[in-house]
TrEMBL record:
Record's catalysed reaction(s): 4-aminobutanoate + 2-oxoglutarate = succinate semialdehyde + L-glutamate; (S)-3-amino-2-methylpropanoate + 2-oxoglutarate = 2-methyl-3-oxopropanoate + L-glutamate
The name this protein goes by in its record: (S)-3-amino-2-methylpropionate transaminase
A Pfam family annotated for this UniProt entry: Aminotran_3
Keyword presence, ATP-binding: no
Family: Belongs to the class-III pyridoxal-phosphate-dependent aminotransferase family.
Example of a GO MF term: pyridoxal phosphate binding
E.C. numbers: 2.6.1.19, 2.6.1.22
Amino acid sequence: MLKNELPKIITAQVPGPKAQAIIERREKAVPAAIKCVYPVVIEKGEGAMVEDVDGNQFIDWVGGVGVLNIGYSHPEIVAAVKDQSEKYFHGMFNIVTHEGYVELAEKMNAIVPVKGNEKMTFFANSGAEADENAVKVAKAFTKRPNIIVFSGAFHGRTMLTMTMTSKKAYAYGLGPFPDGVYRAQFPYLYRTPGEMTESAAIDYYTESIYKVFEECSPAEYVAAIVVEPLQGEGGFIPAPIEWVKAVRKICDEKGILLIADEVQTGFCRTGKMFASEYWQAVDAQPDIITSAKSIAAGLPISAITARKEIMESVKGGTIGGTFCGNPLACAAALKVIEIMQRDHMDERAAEIGKKVIDRFNQWQTKYDVIGDIRGLGAMIGIEFVKDTSTKEPYPELVAAVVNEAAQNGLIIESAGVYGNVIRFLAPLVITETQLDAGLDIFEKAIAKCI
């Protein structure tokens, strides 16, 4: 079975002839702005493995960018979706109630670590929609117009979430943008100015929030502070717990809601079902959590969860939509949660992460182009630099490594403000032999490209 195979390239180069023909058709039919740097045309996927149309087999460390924590084509999820499809595909939740939506909301209310005892959840279709809806809910509850986001943030490609996103390559030429979105500095400890201690750095980054109050929006006009527990596109940078505690304190003092964007960090990726469980352990859990990506094994659905008093502040007609909480996606999500809890996939993520970080740490002593290694669970970033003293980013090397790895059967992806980070997002069902094989290919690519 493909899910148990190891990488195998059988064509003279990648892409092979069949894949090349489809890629050429893509270039004629699809806008170039929807970029793809990978020479892979998928034929089928199982577990952590992909087979292309030419018969080449790849280990996938990207997983549809964090969507496939449970892997490709999990048979129990296929069965759950098939069973639902034979009843009905769609029933707009504003028109007819379907039990799958209700059951999934109940399940999310039970497992999502937001503040409060009574919780409510509603569904959208994508991570960007979830983040935008969370902001709408926060504004409805607080009656305030503004929000604070952070450097390095990525929240989506809608007009509001493009504005919230830090990297303006994602919004080039698409303005003007909505008002009321202000930016503080995220604690990117590897690149803290000067030579601060971690404690001093936490104070420095916390102070940047107060500067927003002073220079951009008084605190009493801020509805929410939106944080990724571990930045994704920004470079796989974890939010330090002491900083999270400081942000939670600011929110409590100023009447601001804390929103955790768990679109990429949710569903066992970080060694917990949700990364905000690390916050909960120090009594700093958020008021609203957004989730998406791995919630339904690839079917489009996202969730917004908050305590009842927040949710019930929203006026009728301002949230929801035609496809939100689609029955097929709800069936998949319910089965995903069941499997993840039953199979302890949070623990498996922690095991994978330890093995990967141990290996990355060995490389750091061998290759002087590795500047930083960081992450939570099986969400890990490795940052490449031209000089470990100056920390000058090395995006050219990362691009070469990504390409070289693909030629040898490993799909990896870059990230980071400077494009100099490689992210680890392998499906959590990856086997030990596949993990070892991927690490070997990755190291050989580094050694070849430096």
